[in-house]
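Hey all, quick one. A colleague (J.T.) asked me to put the flavin mononucleotide job into the tracker so the inputs and the structure tokens live in one place instead of scattered across chat threads. No bug as far as I know, just bookkeeping. Sequence used:
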Amino acid sequence: MTSLDVGGLTLENPLWLAPLAGVTVPAVRAFFRRLGVGLTHTEMVSAAGIVMGNRKTQDMITSPDGRDRPLILQIFGDDPALVEEGARLAIARGGFDALGINMACPMPKVFRKGSGAKLLESPKRAREMVSRLGSLGFPLWVKLRKATAAHPLSTAAFCGLLLEAGADHLTLHGRTAAQRYEGHADVEAVLALARAFPGKVSASGDVYAVEDVLRYLDGGCAGVFLARGILRDPFLVPRALARLGYPFDGSLCAPSPEREIDLLLELGRDLKEQQGERFALVLLKRFVSCMFKGFSGASVFRRAVATEMNWKGLEECLIGAQSLFRS
Ligand SMILES: Cc1cc2nc3c(=O)[nH]c(=O)nc-3n(C[C@H](O)[C@H](O)[C@H](O)COP(=O)(O)O)c2cc1C
């Protein structure tokens, strides 16, 4: 399989880890790299936080793993000049391959301040932001939500404006901001945009099965952002890669519970080291609660994991389950 040239990046495949606040920290990115994703994103990072030298923000833009490439740093903000300044500072630190702008977040703490999906209401400001960031000489990706009749521009017109202003690639999450994460994503809206701007559009929204990936790619999207679907079932990545004909470790398509636990332990230990025990505990519990289903002892195992209150207990529970599954 040849690599893909998309939005100024050369990528091994069209399956990409979406930006997920509170989730796509370096250890999680490394985990999904091991499962085959061709591109990763940081969590969304506040441009103002970068400029103010906020400690937590500095950590978010530091990538300790040189193998986690290509990596997109996604930033958000309302003021084009401030976003540009934040982007300049982040670029100077290095470690990533493209800038992403968040015009998709509907959550009040971002939206109410004029950032994220709120930018769909201000096409002029959105255009200025893109044009300033485009001049930094870094590939520029914009992730956005579907516009509604109440917006000044349709989704396609807004996207045309961003591309003219210098965006290299667009990803449409086929929900409106008002939907937040509820209801269905409008797959047709994403495919219509991909047809309108061939090669320039990727898809986000409701990717839970290999068929969902194929629907977007067959419909003309350049790539697919994997989000809640792979938090429930991380092995969707290798299964979709296999279906698309990408060479990959086939044993990961349907791994044994023991192998799944091995991979989770590796993730958990990395998380504990990089983010601390509490983060590792919460995230691993989240994975286990969705992953281990459909075999004898699975629900007992999930319940046992859910009751663990510290990392050591969780680790022991996972290791203990391995020998149980083996016998
Ligand atoms: C916990 C969580 C955090 C998210 N954080 C971000 C983010 O930081 N930046 C962003 O552009 N989208 C973010 N999203 C949206 C996802 O990238 C994706 O567009 C959305 O979940 C739709 O895909 P899905 O229906 O397949 O989950 C987040 C979604 C979730 C569930």
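Adding what we noticed when we looked at it: The longest strand covers residues 40-46. Residues 217 and 232 are 21 Å apart (CA to CA).
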